[in-house]
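Sample entry follows:

:::
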Amino acid sequence: MKLSERQRAYWRSNLLLTFCLLLIWFGVTFVAGYYANELNSLQFMGFPLGFYIFAQGSMITYLVIIAIYVTVMNRLDRRYRVK
């Protein structure tokens, strides 16, 4: 099945968005976890930063990632007239 140029552009945009958001997810989930002990030497709102990132910050980041994905995909759907 051949894709039209418009369909290829849509999927290219979709994959780029997904890749960028997965990089953010990976950074918050694994990179911050790897450096949790070092982050705990810093304070945020009276809590060690490593603790705060995993207790609150990661959940907030995940919700923001979802909101960004929904917003951008809705715009892409309108731009490329995808139903």
Summary: Residues 13-79 form one domain. The CA atoms of residues 30 and 63 lie 17 Å apart. The chain has a mean pLDDT of 93. The beta strands are 43-44, 47-48.
